[in-house]
Amino acid sequence: MLKIYNTLSRSKEIFKPRVKGKVGLYVCGMTVYDYCHIGHARVMVVFDTVARYFRYCGYDLTYVRNITDIDDKIINRANENGEDFLPLTERFIDAMHEDERALSVLPPDQEPKATQFMPDIINMIETLVKKELAYIGTNGDIFYSVSRFAGYGKLSGKNIEYLQAGERVDVDTAKKDPMDFVLWKMAKPDEPFWQSPWGNGRPGWHIECSAMSTCCLGNHFDIHGGGMDLQFPHHENEIAQSEGATGEKFVNLWMHNGFVRIDEEKMSKSLGNFFTLREVLKKYKSAEVIRYFILTSHYRSPLNYSEQQLDDAGSALTRLYTALRDVEIKNVPIDKVYEQRFKEAMDDDFNTPIALSVLFDCVRELNTAKKDKKQDKIDSLATTLHQLAGIIGILQRNPKKALEAGFRWLKVTSHLEQEYNLDTDEKIQQHIDKRLAAKKNKNWASADKIRDELKEQGIVLEDVADGTIWRRE
RNA sequence: GGCUGCGUAGCAAAGUGGUUAUGCAGUGGCCUGCAAAGCCAUCUACGCCGGUUCGACUCCGGCCGCAGCCUCCA
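^ Those are the sequences you sent over. The predicted structure of the assembly is below.
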């Protein structure tokens, strides 16, 4: 029985799809004017894990994650670069897809872009104007009249009375009320625009998500997600727009993931304290450490970024992959006890830290089974581990290759570098063979020297029954 | 000012009204030519002060500290 925390009710609720066996999930994606940072990676990984789990549970899921490809920041960045906004957004959409693949994030079923939904956006605004929920401001922009929508604030728990509009930002004098927000912005000279009944312009940020989500999933759908910071005003405004326009309930369940922090402070573009995924991958060989790191905390908790934590993630993955290194994944039934424990963890609002702890318990039992040479048990547990880990998108690489590659780019500054010349696996193997020969002659001093010197260069050797295997630290 | 949420061992991170979370790190042992990996054992906990209770890290109240939203942000 799957329970999910609903921001709307501030409690965990038993998940009931609108239509039996089907789920519609919409997640607010990226505004594409820069590379993805670790905060974006978290949204992608969290909702990818949610999507994978729904499918594992047998739901027919439609997962929609939008792309905001027109807004003020995109226009500003394009101007700074002296380019048109289109090549800019195309470039960063490609980059985002690369990052997504690196994180083992499966593509959503639909990835609507704001610029592709102009007719629907304009239709929705027209409806809102017709219903007198929106009006034309003194500058020609169209605004949503917040006071005309009963229940504004129900998602974020805000009371309009106490909101201090204009405290940090000057109130736009074109509005009737400081709380009102823009639906359609008139284009200034040299800005990209689309034609509308109110003149050439572009949509406000919030309306695109109302239009795209209802077009892709219907007026009323199951789950809407995104980062905590979107709760207010973005998602609050989406509710006002969608419910105002359609007259139907918009979304049953709202999910919001916590922030990534740096030194106990929110990572954000505006604070400038962010690391892009690309930067982090200059230190770590595989984005799997980042995915693992994200899964070590519950999706609603804050997640403090540090290299120490990514190193620990690498160590943990080493243990997991090591357990699978010398076994075969067979087509055998998986262990029901571990599957049940794993399911219970995930059913409890996607508790991935517990789910991971189940995997480690499975690893221990698997390692013991190996020691005791219980082949049936080994087959069953190895398959269980591999399959359950797959549900949360980890541990799907070839274990031997993953371990030989290692998880971190080590800076080796050893004087041995020239002498050993370890730039290919074959060359590493030559040194190992040399050591095996020394071992055969019981020339321990020589064998140990090779092992120590390889270790100095980040290569760890393990002598096993039928030879020597290696991995990178 | 209004509204959220958090405070767990060396680090990270779950959870529970009484019984081992888990990972990394540490210590002791087994294994090993010696290691590594693995297995076994083990040390460090629940911000502070009250209250409820046979019993609270877990519930209630107060206090302190931290983060977030009320502006664009995942």
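The mean pLDDT of chain A is 94. The radius of gyration of chain A is 27 Å.

Shout if you want it in another format.
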